[in-house]
Structure formats: structure tokens, C-alpha cells
Design a protein that fits this description.
mainly alpha, Growth Hormone, Chain: A, 2 domains
Amino acid sequence: MTSTEQASNTGARDAQPDHLSHVIFIAAAAAMGGFLFGYDSAVINGAVEAIRDRYDIGSTALAQVIAVALIGCAIGAATAGRIADRIGRIRCMQIAAVLFTVSAVGSALPFALYDLAFWRIVGGFAIGMASVIGPAYIAEVAPAAYRGRLGSFQQAAIVVGIAISQLVNWGILNAADGDQRGELLGVEAWQIMLGVMVVPAVLYGLLSFAIPESPRFLISVGKDERAREVLAEVEGKDVDLDARVAEIESAMNSEHKSTFKDLLGGSFFFKPIVWIGIGLSVFQQFVGINVAFYYSATLWQSVGVDPTESFFYSFTTSIINIVGTVIAMIFVDRIGRKPLALIGSVGMVIGLALEAWAFSFDLVDGKLPATQGWVALIAAHVFVLFFALSWGVVVWVMLGEMFPNRIRAAALGVAASAQWIANWAITASFPSLADWNLSVTYVIYTVFAALSIPFVLKFVKETKGKALEEMG
């Protein structure tokens, strides 16, 4: 192909495709997995105290039931890529949709605590699959000129899923007159909260039948003609389809399949860049962000807030999470990843420190004093806002960019695993730590937020504007 043809072909790929609205639909349908990721992760927030009461369990057992889903998440994330390479991205989405559905039904109708824990693991496996398949599929289907914006659908869907789960929980609690164990439709309110996820799970499954398989997978299994049809569908009919297929085949053939062994080296087992990725993942979780999504209703009730109001505050926090995510999406390419992370860290330190101060006061008639109560509430929203506009988005962007090509896939897998493990550690420890001393618990989160500042300054390099091939 001549240079003129190449330029023409590139121009066609970067131009607005004939059916951009259809491409947006495809990306949005795939991002439903992200919506379920967020929804399933956060919906348990509405059931925590009811589960404690129904099964008469202490904080340690309760924490394990809440955190056990993260085991499924780690397994699902670790295996999703291989499953998708064998049976296809669409089939993988359909498996996840089925798992989300049966998990919702099983969690809503458990006959024992261990049964509930099992269905939580099943749902976690689906979350793990969705966390990998959605972004990968969108990246493989989206036209190059729109890949970044369409790729952001996944993160946007996650935070919307979190918010909708809290809104649904609040609505159900109001219908049950503020009683999480109040009867609705023949079962307890908290069971309805967990069961409602059937609706988006079924929708996700139905949408998967309306979108095409990834051209990359089709080419990998020898279905080149179908791959051409999909490429024409998403990139426009003016594209040189034979050249695109050849380009994808060439890229696949030249790829280095990174393995765990590629990550070894240096003085401390892993290469330094891998440790930096692990550090970003761990700091992202050790500031306690998922306490805000898994336990916020319980947290506010523990300091005397009415259950209905506590559920409403969980919803408002989720809206702030969406606002912060939008801010990050706007500025991550404008001011850079590193400055945004530092701004977020400073804001999180302030928010967490104020929460720690507010929770250090003794309760009066079962409630925080008025001033401290308002400070705690506002500070919690400040913390979530600064996390969402920085670390919530920046870490995932940097993990996708910072590693050299030859180790990117394996290093990203290790960093993501570290994130799930750190998430589990915070989720499993919070109830017991809160029972011991809520203020000190927030001091611990504040310390990690503060330590993230020198970590970013010393070890993290800016990746804004650099080609992936430049990472070394």
C-alpha cells in the first residue's frame, strides 16, 4: 500500500464513522458490565445491618460476608482474559450476565449465612469478569479517534451503578417504613435490595445479543469475513477492510505474551516499575474509599443518624462520586496524571483528618454533637470528591500506560490483583476497627493518604502525552 493510501486509510479511521450512534450503543451495552460492577459492589451497603441482626453475628463474621465477594472478584479478573480468548468476548459477557442474575436471586433468598456468602462469591466472580472484559472489548471495537472517550464509558458506568444502587436502597427502605428488615413482597426489605439487581443483569444479557463480536477475536479464530463486516459497521465503509484485517493480524503476531517471569528482577524480587504499580493500587485502596461504598449506611447509623437519612447520605455521596469522576475525565489529559493525583491526595488528607476529628467526640444521646456531625458529613463528601477526581480514575489510566510493552499485560494483572487484595483487607478490617475506635480508624486512612504524596512525588513519572512505546 502506498503512503497516500495509508494516509487516506488513517484519515478514514479518524473521521466520524457513518454510524457513530451505533458505535456509542455498542460501547454503552458493553459498559453495562461496569454498571453491574458498581451496582453489585455497593448494593450490599443497604443490607449490612439487617444481615448482622438476622443472623446475630459479630463484626468479624459480618466483615467476612461482606468482603468474601472480593475473593470471587480476584478469581474472575484473573481468568476472564483466558475465557474471552477461548470462547469470545460476547460469550464471556453472557456468562457474567448469568452469574450476576443467579447471584442476585441467591443473595435475595439465602437459607443460611454461608449460603449468602456463596452467592456473594458468585457475584464477585461476575464483577471480576466485567472489570476485565468491558474495557478490553470497547478498546477492540472502538474507532481509534473515539477510543479514549468510549473507553471512559466503563468508569462512568461503574460510578452510576454505585449511585443507582444507593438510590434503589433508599427507595426500598422508605417503602419499608425505614426498617431494613421490614416486610415487602413477602420477604425482608434488605432481600429486595439485593434481588433488584436481576433487572440490570438480565438487560446486560439481552444487550449482549445485540452487539457484534470483537474483530480481534474473530480474526484470531479465522473468521476474517465476519471481522470485515464488524469493522465496516464500527469504522465506516470507506476503510480499507483488507488492510485493517492485515494490520490487526500483524499486531497480534508481533505481540509479546508477557508472563510472570518477565516481571522478576531488581533488588526486591519484582522490577521497580512493577512495585510502583503495586504501590498505586495499594494506596488507592488503603485510604479507605470502599468503606464509603460498603459501610456508609452502617457508619452513619453508628453515630446516631436515622437509617433513612443514612441511606440518603449514601446516595448523595455516590452523586459526588459521579461528579468527581466527570471532573477527572475532563482534566486527566489537560493537567496530567501526576498533578491530579497530588491534588486528590491533599484533598483526601483534609477530608479524612476532619472525619477522624469529628468521630473522636463522645456521642450525646446516641448521636455526635451537632457541629461534629455536620463536619463528619461534609468531610465524607469532600473525601469522596477528591478521591473520585484523582485516584479513582488516574490509577487505572496510569496502570494502562506506565509499563513497558513487553511486560504490560502481566504487570497490569499483578497490580490489579494487589488492588483486590488491598480492597479485601480494608473491607474485612473496617467493622472490627470501627468497633475498637472509629476515630483512630480514620487516622490510619489519613496517614495512608498523606504517605501517597511523597510516593507520587518520588516514584511516579508523568505519562501524559507519551506514546506507549516510550515507557521503559
